[in-house]
Amino acid sequence: MAAPLLAPYSSLFDLSNRLILVTGGYGHLGRAIVSGLLSHGATVVVLGRNKSQFKETFAALLATAPVHFQLCDVSSTPSVREALATCRQQYGLPQVLINNAVYSEGQQPDALTDEQFARGLDGSTGSVYRCLREVLPYLRENGGGKIINVASMYGMVAPDFAAYDQHPQFLNPPHYGAAKAAVIQLTKYFASYLGPENIQVNCVSPGAFPSERVQKEGGFVAELERRSPLGRIGRPEDLAGAFVYLSAAASDFVTGHNLVVDGGWTIR
Q: Which residues, at least 6 apart from 121, have a Cβ–Cβ distance to it below 8 Å?
């Protein structure tokens, strides 16, 4: 008698009928996000500017996994429009968009030019809005869907500048945190606006997930580890489950939420 009761729950994380678009899906965190989605049956289209990097990142999967590349520059509305139209034509209607791509210029907090500051804001917030706006006709045609934005713990708290005293090259710039805070608010805004159309909008805020290049600086990694209640930095695979959950039926009643994956950094 238990089987009928359990059956609906067995597919909560099944993504086998979902086409998921991921901007910037071949970077340090993007490849883990994409791999997690694929492992749960999704068909994934990575939108990006570097096809050779995509091929290198997913070389072991291209022959067997439903992962595809679509040229797209998220800083350009015409490019985003063309990319989404091509995806619709080649793969069908998307169920999920993950806004993971980012770009920025400048680092020194009190010496950014106007152009650098604007570029950083656009790279984290403008690009998210651009892609969200352009995907809406396809989600509406599909009768609903999900949008997942990538924010950051630095959209919630200020950096602990002592962590950068001996490693100024890794200093987190002010326009990054400001833009990521805007992403969190943009997520809430559109969750409210699009809720009646069965479109859920959520975001994920990663904590300290330094790239492989940054991890070569052991002293800086140690500074990050000391600030985490779990005593370690994030591994890319630590982030994958959040995107599987927010892409799946398991999160159909979740919208406007900021899922923090930071090892506890922001709790103290």
A: 175, 178, 179, 182
Query: Is the pLDDT at 204 greater than 90, yes or no?
Result: yes
Tokens of 3: 């089987």
The two structure tokens encoding residue 99: 């806004």
Whether this model's pTM surpasses 0.90: yes
* Cβ atoms 250, 12 nearer than 8 A: yes
Annotated catalytic residue 91: no
Catalytic residue among 138, 176, 189, 193: 176
Domain ranges of the chain: 15-106+114-267
Residue 1 has a pLDDT of 44
At the fourth CATH level, the homologous superfamily of domain 15-106+114-267 is NAD(P)-binding Rossmann-like Domain (3.40.50.720)
Burial class (CB in 10 A: 0-12, 13-18, 19+), 24: buried
* Mean of all residue pLDDT scores within the chain: 96
User: How far, in Å, CA of 64 to CA of 255, rounded?
Assistant: 33
C-beta separation of 185 from 151 below 8 A: no
